[in-house]
Amino acid sequence: MTETLTFLLSGTLLAGTPLLIAALGELVTEKSGILNLSVEGMMAVGAIFAFMVVTGGGSYWVALAAGGMAALVVAALFAVVVIFTLANQVAAGLAVGILGLGLAGLIGDPFEAQTVPPMPKLPIPGLAGLPVLGRGLFDHVPVVYLAPVLALATWLMLTRTRLGLLLRSAGENPDAANSIGINVRFVRFCATLYGGFCAGVAGGFISVVSATLWADGIIAGRGWIVVALVVFGTWRAGRIAIGAYLFGLATLSGLLVQTTGVAIPSQLLTSIPYIVTIVAIALLSMNPKLTWLNAPVSLGQPYLPTK
Fold first, then answer.
1. N or C terminus: which one in the chain shows less Cβ crowding within 10 Å?
2. Is the pTM of this model over 0.85?
3. pLDDT, tens digit, for every residue of 93-135?
């Protein structure tokens, strides 16, 4: 029982971390009014570039940064298409996402099934030795500790800073923002780049930290869970953090069921996180007021400055 609880705590944090990082980036992007459905492809691009850096002898931190920058380039392409050419954000997001998945598969073909050493852990002195909770909560790689800090920083930025006000203005009422001198398109462009960077870091985390291998399709739909998480969290950083770890826990449920010896097809077990996603969104949709209370009014709508 003790080992199971430790496994649940540790696995939940590890599985929830990339979801949280990418979802916080998507939150910032959507708060500016841009709906980015290409997160899956951006995470895949970040994953392969981070993996290449580690296999080439680079540090894990450089690898995560490289993954973020690679996805940022993909995000820049998406941003130019939807912000400056006013393309439909849903169609462009799907197209760029598919492009990212294809590029990642092409670039990663020589690295298929290769592995890398795990990123060194950083046990927290005085806490990692605690029974059950110690190894479950305080014996992880540094990025796991930084993810909740990023959630707190994102919340503070959006609600307590001028930058957050600019972002929310661009997403809520771009015409009013433009009338007082805010460059709405520039704000949206930067927010989209940030979201792409976070997606790339999250993808890199999956390939070089949690999975420690490269395989085509390694993201396995997590990008879509990220998009759903923003809705699930009703565009609030704190709720998104809770949701990310809940979905992280859901990914472990298949392994737990297998340990009980119950004869359930593996395909059904691996689909549990996505079933949870569908159920969660369906339940939220039953209360539209709750779902859209914090949604940016201009989310997904193209904007052309009037002057």
1. C
2. yes
3. 999 999 999 999 999 999 999 999 999 999 999 888 888 788 8
In whole angstroms, give the CA distance from residue 203 to residue 223: 9
Give the burial class of 101: count Cβ atoms within 10 A of its Cβ; 0-12 exposed, 13-18 middle, 19 or more buried.
Answer: buried
47 domain-assigned: yes
| Residue tagged 């993201």 (tokens) | 219
Residue pair 239/233 in contact by the 8 Å Cβ criterion:
yes
Instruction: Say if 298 falls within a structural domain.
Output: no
Can you read off the two tokens belonging to residue 92? 């462009």
Type of residue found at 194: Y
State which residues form the domain around 110: 2-220
Measured in whole angstroms, how far is the alpha carbon of residue 146 from the centre of its chain?
Answer: 14
**Residues 222-264: tens digit of each pLDDT:** 999 999 999 888 899 999 999 999 888 888 876 666 666 666 6
More confident residue, 129 or 151: 151
* Residue 248: inside a domain: no
Hey, what are 242's tokens? 């809770």
Count of residues in the chain: 307
Q: What is the pLDDT of residue 307?
A: 65
Asked if residues 32 and 191 have their Cβ atoms less than 8 Å apart, the reply is yes
Distance (Å, rounded) from C-alpha 15 to C-alpha 210? 8
Looking at the structure of the chain, the number of domains it has is 1
Instruction: Report how far apart, in Å, the C-alpha atoms of 137 and of each of 12, 124, 131, 192, 194 are.
Output: 10, 9, 11, 32, 28
